[in-house]
Amino acid sequence: MGNVLTKSFVTSDDIYWDICNKIENLEYMPGDRLSENELASRYGVSRHIVRGALAALKNRRLVEVYPQRGTFVSLIDTEYISDILYMRESVEQEAICRIIESGDVESIVKHMRSAIEAQKKLKEGADFSQKFYELDNLFHEVLFDAVGRPHVMELIADPYIHIRRWRNYEVRTPERIREIMLEHEEIADAIEQKDRDKARVALHKHLDTATRYSKPLKEVEAQYFA
């Protein structure tokens, strides 16, 4: 489950962020039980400190607490994920409309294609996923930078950990990774062509992943879904 934090630096916040990272990266899978005793032993702290971390995780909908049963990593709630993605898509669709209406798309598309090409050149390795999604974020940040709203995603930063967990769960094959890059190219092509309808459809297809992929995944791994 990764490195245990150094005892002298462990607080409830340290444990909270460490478990957040493990949930996001599927080191703790949806439905996994989190034992207070085991966590206290792992981090070298009292159960009181662990409870503080678990309470914060519950507030962020990352764990569920059931009386007499224990604490469990929350299942993937595709309706909640779809709501968050709906908000994200709404602001990205508006950004694309403004970009196309401005008529000045050349430099914007150039930066988008740069991120795509960098993704294509990535080599498989332990840090592949992290680097791939850093470039994925860069691709989308170009849109917000272009309309003078570079910090807009901070408005949904807190619940976005659920999207990142879903993304790590949903994108587990080379085929899906290639598909993401093709979707990026479709969005960039549409903006370059100043085709608002084509861009709208391409962006919706790219972001509406909970609708597109949850049903087949639920059929084979139903235990991970709410």
From TrEMBL:
<dbReference type="InterPro" id="IPR008920">
    <property type="entry name" value="TF_FadR/GntR_C"/>
</dbReference>
<dbReference type="InterPro" id="IPR036388">
    <property type="entry name" value="WH-like_DNA-bd_sf"/>
</dbReference>
<keyword id="KW-0804">Transcription</keyword>
<dbReference type="InterPro" id="IPR000524">
    <property type="entry name" value="Tscrpt_reg_HTH_GntR"/>
</dbReference>
<feature type="domain" description="HTH gntR-type">
    <location>
        <begin position="9"/>
        <end position="76"/>
    </location>
</feature>
<dbReference type="InterPro" id="IPR036390">
    <property type="entry name" value="WH_DNA-bd_sf"/>
</dbReference>
<dbReference type="InterPro" id="IPR011711">
    <property type="entry name" value="GntR_C"/>
</dbReference>
<dbReference type="Pfam" id="PF00392">
    <property type="entry name" value="GntR"/>
</dbReference>
<dbReference type="GO" id="GO:0003677">
    <property type="term" value="F:DNA binding"/>
</dbReference>
<keyword id="KW-0805">Transcription regulation</keyword>
<dbReference type="GO" id="GO:0003700">
    <property type="term" value="F:DNA-binding transcription factor activity"/>
</dbReference>
<protein>
    <recommendedName>
        <fullName>HTH gntR-type domain-containing protein</fullName>
    </recommendedName>
</protein>
<dbReference type="Pfam" id="PF07729">
    <property type="entry name" value="FCD"/>
</dbReference>
<keyword id="KW-0238">DNA-binding</keyword>
